[in-house]
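**User:** Once you have settled down, spend some time on the protein underneath, comparing sequence with C-alpha cells, and judge whether sequence predicts the C-alpha cells.
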Amino acid sequence: MIFIGDTFDFEFTTKTSNPIRCAFGKQFSILLFSDNSGIYKVSAHHLCFVVPVHYPSFVRSVLKPKDLPLRESVDRLFEFKSSKNRDRFALYVDSISNDHFQIIKELGPPKNIRENKTL
C-alpha cells in the first residue's frame, strides 16, 4: 500500500455500520482507498490517500446525536488497537478549541453506532 499525503502514526476505525478507516499523526485524517495502483521499488501497490479532516465537522457529520461532546465521541465512535493510541487521540481531541463545524455531505447521512454488547 502506498499512502499519498500526510504521514501518520496509527490507524483506527469507526464503529459505524460501514466503518471508516481513520489515521492520526499531527492531525486527524481519513484514509481514502482507490482502485489505482502505483509502482514503487519495482512492484505494484494500491494507492491510499491520507486526507486531513476537521475533527468537529467529521464527528457532527457522522454521528446522529449532533450535540454529543467531542470528548465522548472518542469512545463512542472509534475502535482503537491499543489504549495508548486511544489516550493519545483523546489528548488531541481535548486540545481542540475551535469546535465550530460544517456538515461534510460527502460522508453521507449520519450513521448508527454499533454498541459493544457484553454478556
